[in-house]
Amino acid sequence: DQQVKQNSPSLSVQEGRISILNCDYTNSMFDYFLWYKKYPAEGPTFLISISSIKDKNEDGRFTVFLNKSAKHLSLHIVPSQPGDSAVYFCAARFQGAQKLVFGQGTRLTINP
Amino acid sequence: EAGVVQSPRYKIIEKKQPVAFWCNPISGHNTLYWYLQNLGQGPELLIRYENEEAVDDSQLPKDRFSAERLKGVDSTLKIQPAELGDSAVYLCASSGGGTYNEQFFGPGTRLTVL
């Protein structure tokens, strides 16, 4: 049972445009959501997060939106840059726990 | 500040052989995690340590996998004997507390079992 799902295995976006990565979850007990970015041969790197009590968090070019009623979150990257090409993982944390549940990842490719 | 260190980075072994992975977390981080990442999938937690105590090992296949974190710092994950299906990337992460307790990952060890 996949509790965190990223339904798009890959996404291709032109440089300068907006990249939107999506993530759905099924468990309403998640209270904190994170996005990680992963380059080849490296471990995932924390990018941005959002608490379940908020609906938006912004950090420079990166914004995460949370729609609790739809159990959906998205990561917006504006403007997209070639260095943003990587695999992006959505992760969720259970209330009061340290365990993270990860989605399958979305490979983002930024085309010049 | 040094990040999470893992070794080896790559390991190729034949099935039924033993293998061990080593992790050194970020200094001062009390929580250490071992994750398994299969190709095309996200990381899946194998075991979590709080200092030297394994507080969540429910996903660790205990018939062939073992882990230890002596003195609450470095950790070793072992597989004995390895099977073909164990080919994957083994990630170590650590966290240091705080409100949201973000996890910081090492580069991983890519294991290939032939």
Task: Please describe what this structure looks like.
Chain A has 112 residues and is mainly beta. Helix content of chain A is 0%, strand content 57%. Chain A contains no helices and 11 strands. In chain A, strands 2, 4, 5, 9, 10 and 11 form a 6-stranded mixed beta sheet that branches. Chain B has strands at residues 5-7, 10-13, 19-24, 31-37, 44-50, 53-56, 65-68, 75-79, 88-95, 104-105, 109-113. With 114 residues, chain B is an all-beta fold. Chain B contains no helices and 11 strands. The termini of chain B are far apart. Chain B is globular, with a radius of gyration of 13 Å. The A-B interface holds A 4, 9, 32, 34, 36, 41-46, 49, 51, 89, 91, 98-100, 102-105 and B 4, 6, 9, 31, 40-45, 48, 56, 91, 93, 95, 100-108.
- Flag low-confidence runs of chain B: none
Class by alpha and beta content of chain A: mainly beta
Which descriptor suits the 3D outline of chain A?
globular
Coarse structural class of chain B: mainly beta
* Mean pLDDT over the full residue set of chain A: 95
Over the alpha carbons, how many angstroms does the gyration radius of chain A reach?
13 Å
Mean pLDDT of chain B comes to 93
Low-pLDDT parts of chain A are: none
Rg over C-alpha atoms of chain B, rounded to the nearest angstrom: 13 Å
Helix share bin of chain B: under 10%
Q: Please estimate the helix content of chain A.
A: under 10%
Largest sheet of chain A: 6 strands, mixed
Strand content of chain A: over 45%
Order of helices and strands of chain A: EEEEEEEEEEE
Query: How would you spell out the order of helices and strands of chain B?
Result: EEEEEEEEEEE
Oligomer: heterodimer
General shape of chain B: globular
- Spatial separation of the terminal alpha carbons of chain B: 37 Å
Number of DSSP helical runs of chain A: 0
Give a short account of the largest sheet of chain B: 7 strands, mixed
